Structure formats: C-alpha cells, structure tokens
Amino acid sequence: MLNKIKIIGKKILPKEQDEKKNDGAASAFQEAEKEIDKPQSNKFERENNREP
Amino acid sequence: MVPTPSGSLTILRCITQGEMAEKIDKVQEEEVIEVHGYLRNEKDSRQIMVRVVDFNKLDLNFAEINLKESNQVRLIGKIITDLHSSEEKQNSEIFSFKLAAPREGVKSPLFFCRINEKELIPEFNEKLKKGDVILLEGYLQTQKILEERESEKKITRISSVICYGFTFLDNDSASVFNPLGDLVRVVKEVSKIDFSKPKG
Are B21 and B4 in contact (CB under 8 A)? Predict the structure, then answer.
C-alpha cells in the first residue's frame, strides 16, 4: 500500500541532543517550541480550538 | 519545523541512518529543506516520525514556503475503526479514525487520522465505513502536551494525520466489488486559522 510524505521546513536539532551540545544554552529547537507555546501564537493549541 | 496548510506550525521528528544521515547532518540548522519519506509510528508513544528517504536543500526563506505544498501525506489503507466523533475540547468536535497502511519497514502500520474540516465530515460519514480502502490526502501534525502531575512536568507528543481529502477505492469485503471507473476524489480546502482572534 501507499505511505509517503513530502515536507518542506527548517532543520532543528532534537532537544535532547542539543541540550548536551549547548550545555544549558537555549537551542534552536527550544526557541522554536517557545515560539509555538506563546499564548499569542499558540498555533498547536489553536488548531484544535478554532471556531466554526 | 514545518508549516501546515492551516497556517499553523508543527515540529516533526525525522529519522534516518547511514549515508543519508551523514548527508543530512551537514545541513545547517535553520536551513530550509524538502524531505521525502514515509510515516512510521514511534515505539511506545503516539508520535509519528518521518523516515527520510531523500532530501534536498531549497534556496528560500522559511517565510516563503508555500503552505499548500509544505506538508503533504498520501496513504492508501484500510479504515479499521468505526468513524467516530468526540468532544475533545470545548466547542471542538473531533472526528477520528484509524487507517492501516502496511509498508515494508513499518512494523506498526496503524495511523491515527482526524478531520478538522467540518464540510468533509458529512462526506466521510456518507461515503465511507469500516473496512473501506481509501487513498487519503492530508498532512502530519504533532502536538506537544504538557502534563503537570504534582511537582513533575511530563511532556508527551501526539501525532495525527489531518485528512482533507479522500478517494474511495474499494472495500476489504469480497462481497463488495467496486467498479474502479467510478472513482470520486473528495477534497476540501483547508481552512486557515485566524491567529488574530483570542484563543477560545
């Protein structure tokens, strides 16, 4: 059967790996997650809460 | 990090190995790339990963990515659950089902799918049922769920394939023989999320 995906996006290193490398400094991954988690731009949550 | 057709952003976990891993390792952070691959469920979690088969660097900024092309999933599989809706959150009706899409290298081929487009739900209910084989068109989204239990914070990531279109191919039952000449593709435009509105 068919199972495929095509995505276009920017590369972000996994958090766990990044934390080790940066010794506590905020990683691009963490910054990206913070950006999504901001109340004004919580695009993950908003996806589920959008009005009809 | 990948934009979805609704305008939201999602962080998708990509996995690869060998020569491809070495190549992708050379890509700088924040660089925009196009990745081709297939879906694989992560063991012991509800996150769906992208197994990278091929990729190429694109000469554009993140803001220039075309939302209609940035996140596209194609699955041919059998619906193995009843189509059901549930009130997951306030004022939010979630319509979901599971699709079995076997593929070489994928041990757990059941994918959690959901429909956000309200216009597509009646079409689904009317035309599809458990056991039907469909070509599903959609996009992949992973949500981060933060659970606070006592003083402990636990982060889990839950993925689903958001379906915006389908083509009914046939039913798994031998007693049903669908004439392939009558294939009908049902696709709905993904509604853009209005991020200027306060969170509901």
Answer: no
